[in-house]
Design a protein that fits this description.
α2 links the parallel β4 (60-63) and β5. Helices cover 46% and strands 13% of the residues. It has two domains: 11-84 and 195-249; 86-174, no CATH class. Strands 3-2-1-4-5 form a five-stranded mixed sheet, with helices on both faces. It has helices spanning 45-52, 69-76, 86-97, 104-115, 122-138, 140-143, 159-174, 183-188, 197-213, 219-232, 240-246, 250-262, and strands at 11-20, 23-29, 34-40, 60-63, 81-84, 146-148, 154-156. It has 293 residues and is an alpha/beta fold.
Length: 293
C-alpha cells in the first residue's frame, strides 16, 4: 500500500503506465524516490484525485498531459503550478505533422515545435510565443479551408495541421508550457525541469523491463509486481524480515478493500489502508462468479 506523504517537495513527476488494455497504474515520484501509486481502469479525474490526495501538494508538478489530470490537480492541489512536459508537447505536434511535412505551413510549425525543446529562459519563451502567434496569423485562412467528406459533411481540408495548432494553442492559453522559466518560480526554486524524463526513464522504463523479463504473469500479478517495485523504491521501505511480519496477505487485502468499499466512511481525508481503492472496479457484487474474480 502506498504511504501517506506529508513532506512537501519542490517538484513532483506524475505519469501512468498501462499494464493491460484497460488497467493503468498512476505513479508519482520525485528525483530520488517513488511517492505513491494507484491502479485504475483509465486516467480519469477521480483516479488521479485518489493518487494526489495521499501526497502533500508540491510547488511544481510535471505531467505529460494525461486525460483527467488537470481537473484532479485543480481540485486536489489548487496551489501547485503545473508544467506540461515540453517533449510530449513536441511529440503531439510531430504525430500530426510527421517529421517530414508536405505543406509549407507544416514545415514551419514543425520547426516551431522543435525550438520548443530549446527554450532556456523567459525571454526565449516570450519570443517563442510571438513566433507561434505569427505563424497562426499567417496561416489562419489556409487552416480554415473546408471540404466535404464522403458523407457530405464539411471538414477541415488540413485537419491534421488544425489539430497540431489546437494542441499548442491550448497549452499557451493554459500557461503550463513555460512554468519552468517563470520568473516567480525561478526566484523560489533553483531548477525546474521542462520534461518528465525522470519518471519516464527512472520509473516507467524500469517497470516495462521488469514486466518483459517476467512475461506470462496474470493481470493481477502484473499489477502486484508494479506495486512491489514502487514500494521498494519509496523513501523508507521496510526490511524484508519486517515486511513478512507486517504486510497484509492477499486475503487480508481483499477484506480491507471490501471494508472500505462497502463500509461507512465517517472519517474525512485519505486513510492509511485502502481508502483510495474501489473494490467494484475489479469485482462484481453479484453472486455469479466470473473469470476475473
Amino acid at each position: 500500500m502506498p504511504p501517506l506523504v506529508d513532506e512537501v517537495f519542490d517538484v513532483v513527476y506524475v505519469d501512468g503506465i498501462w499494464v493491460a488494455r484497460d488497467v493503468v497504474v498512476l505513479i508519482a515520484c520525485t528525483d530520488e524516490h517513488v511517492l505513491g501509486w494507484y491502479v485504475a481502469r483509465s486516467e480519469n479525474p477521480r483516479s488521479w484525485g485518489a493518487l494526489l490526495c495521499r501526497i502533500a501538494p508540491p510547488a511544481i508538478v510535471i505531467s505529460d498531459g494525461g486525460s483527467g489530470f488537470a481537473k484532479a490537480a485543480r481540485k486536489t492541489w489548487p496551489t501547485t503550478r503545473v508544467q506540461r512536459c515540453t517533449f510530449h508537447a513536441f511529440c503531439q505536434v510531430r504525430r500530426y505533422t510527421t517529421s517530414r511535412p508536405k505543406h509549407e505551413a507544416g514545415v514551419e510549425l514543425y520547426g516551431i515545435a522543435c525550438r520548443l525543446l530549446h527554450v532556456a529562459d523567459s525571454g526565449q519563451a516570450a519570443a517563442w510565443v510571438v513566433s507561434y502567434a505569427s505563424w497562426c496569423s499567417r496561416w489562419d485562412a489556409f487552416l480554415a479551408e473546408q471540404t466535404r467528406d464522403e458523407h457530405g459533411h464539411l471538414v477541415y481540408t488540413h485537419e491534421r495541421l488544425v489539430k497540431a495548432r489546437n494542441s499548442l494553442t491550448t497549452l499557451v492559453r493554459q500557461g503550463t508550457l513555460f512554468t519552468y522559466v517563470d520568473p516567480d518560480v525561478a526566484d523560489r526554486l533553483e531548477h525546474v525541469p521542462a520534461t518528465n524524463n525522470r519518471i519516464e526513464g527512472g520509473v516507467n522504463a524500469q517497470l516495462r523491463r521488469m514486466l518483459r523479463d517476467h512475461r506470462g504473469l496474470s493481470l493481477m500479478r502484473r499489477v502486484k509486481a508494479v506495486f512491489w517495485w514502487c514500494y521498494l523504491h519509496t523513501e523508507c521501505p521496510l526490511p524484508a524480515a519486517q515486511i513478512l511480519r507486517v504486510m497484509p496477505t492477499d486475503s487480508e487485502v481483499d477484506r480491507l478493500y471490501r471494508d472500505y468499499a462497502y463500509g461507512e466512511r465517517e472519517r474525512v481525508g485519505p486513510q492509511q489502508w485502502g481508502d483510495a481503492v474501489v473494490w467494484s472496479e475489479f469485482h462484481q457484487s453479484t453472486p455469479f462468479g466470473t473469470d476475473w474474480d
